[in-house]
């Protein structure tokens, strides 16, 4: 993927970098990674996972039946790891550039000199 990743996609890949996970585990992990800012619904998650599988960034690790329901575990592929690494580096460079500009901005505008009591009326 040459374009920047959308935040939910970035967080899904980040979650899978730790270990293979099933859908509900991914929903919880993405919420935790984003401090609750990103809340994936099952339809959104599985649509994203289908796209990531098609792109070769994620693969099905295994399937098991739990309480009569199929649970599918997903894992990060080598291409997925490379994509996540590249995106992490891109974001790091952006943060570094913004931080440098903000530091320069705060240093470029010195505080106004304090007013002394008295003076001309």
Provide a short characterization of the protein structure:
This protein has 121 residues and is α+β, with helices and mostly antiparallel strands.
Description:
This protein is an alpha+beta fold and 121 residues long. The chain has one domain: Winged helix-like DNA-binding domain superfamily/Winged helix DNA-binding domain (Arc Repressor Mutant, subunit A, Orthogonal Bundle). The chain contains four helices and three strands, in the order H-E-H-H-E-E-H. The chain has helices at residues 7-18, 23-33, 42-54, 78-108; strands at 21-22, 58-66, 69-76. The protein has a three-stranded antiparallel beta sheet with strand order 1-3-2. The mean pLDDT is 89. It comes from Micromonospora globbae. Residues 105-121 have a biased composition (Low complexity). This is PadR family transcriptional regulator. InterPro entries: Metal_resp_DNA-bind_regulator (IPR052509), Tscrpt_reg_PadR_N (IPR005149), WH-like_DNA-bd_sf (IPR036388), WH_DNA-bd_sf (IPR036390). Residues 12-85 form the Transcription regulator PadR N-terminal domain.
């Amino acid at each position: 993927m040459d374009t920047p990743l959308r935040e939910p996609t970035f967080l899904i890949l980040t979650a899978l970098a730790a270990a293979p996970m099933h859908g509900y585990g991914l929903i919880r992990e993405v919420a935790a990674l984003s401090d609750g800012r990103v809340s994936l619904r099952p339809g959104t998650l599985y649509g994203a996972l289908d796209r990531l599988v098609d792109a070769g960034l994620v693969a099905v690790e295994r399937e098991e039946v739990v309480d009569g329901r199929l649970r599918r575990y997903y894992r990060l592929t080598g291409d997925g790891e490379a994509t996540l690494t590249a995106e992490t580096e891109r974001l790091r460079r952006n943060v570094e550039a913004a931080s440098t500009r903000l530091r320069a901005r705060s240093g470029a505008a010195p505080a106004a000199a304090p007013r002394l009591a008295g003076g001309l009326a």
